[in-house]
């Protein structure tokens, strides 16, 4: 039951009505029970009864071990560590067994991967680790722990929510609020626009060029890869818009997972803007703990003796980052293409960027006297970062590592940008009208993204900034006729130009498989 399907919208409408009616009937209680029942029902309809056991079992194990942890004296570090190891072994064991063994024994083992496996595993692990470190109060209710681990909108593609920051709101009562309903549905509409109008269309171009033995070379490979970048972004961020907007109608605030990532000036900034909750989770629960281990502390001392304090510290950090980025790649899948394209390649980008920064700063700033923060320099950095990210996307979208290397070779074998203007791009799955709709829609997306980016900068630079902090707030500040005209136009745009209707099957969100 995909988030863009008619059946899901009917399901959501029924849940929303019950969510606000139940507390009226039961004197302010029961909202979280409605969400739990809806989550169980959604998972059962989407996956069936057998696969429903996985998130429930993971939630039960986490709750039981948290309860065991709270009964142990904090001075009994060995016993507490044993409970932590048990939690890691069970949850990561299930994750590895279901998600990665099939890549090793692809011909002999066929295992169904439960919906949202990586997301609820990381959420529950993060919660347990926070309790272990004493920075999160334990949740004593098994059913509330199940709701946190199984909240149905998050099952599709996240975001990864921390219980100590945003998870407690699941269990609180939320009054019916006009602003929450309208803003939430507006955010959902924007997600439908991204997914149904842009992502579904661009997918046709990508599938044509990326098909095995398609024969496309040169500029067509890079054109299709850029299309895939926007397909993946509008698919994943569109899903986040639907999830965040849907949750907002329940009075729940979910963390932002995307903040205009294609406007990033370097790879580190890109990952602070793309799938942000995964990056935060990895840093908090893998990267920083790694640096505190005896091995890395001893390694840091050794590096500092050999290479000096500054370089030694940097080398130690890069070594820990290699493990971090390998883990990020493995999170996406056990295939080598994910480890390279979503992991090690980005590690190499960051290391090379940090290592060469002093030289390029000296060259461009001191010798050539180029303003590194000027508009031209920033535009170049944005384009450069987008290109580097696209190389990783070739691995992500290709059928295998070998296929990715073949496509990259084809992309540099010939390159004639004039081929984009000789009419052949209309043979890639979209005719002239469909391609025009796609590009006009991307232009709308870029305009909105730039507006949001500028508002984010204002809020970051000026803590007392009192202006609109989102495009929705900006539209809400306009006269009623104008703002309603904007939203009605967007609704009609999605209805008339969205990819749905007879013969349409709601496609899975790309990150749903992770």
From TrEMBL:
Domain of life per record: Bacteria
One biological process term in Gene Ontology: alginic acid biosynthetic process
Record GO terms (molecular function): acyltransferase activity
Subcellular location: Cell membrane
Recorded topology in the membrane: Multi-pass membrane protein
GO CC entries: plasma membrane
Keywords, alphabetical: Acyltransferase, Cell membrane, Membrane, Transferase, Transmembrane, Transmembrane helix
Similarity remark: Belongs to the membrane-bound acyltransferase family.
Protein name, as recorded: D-alanyl-lipoteichoic acid acyltransferase DltB, MBOAT superfamily
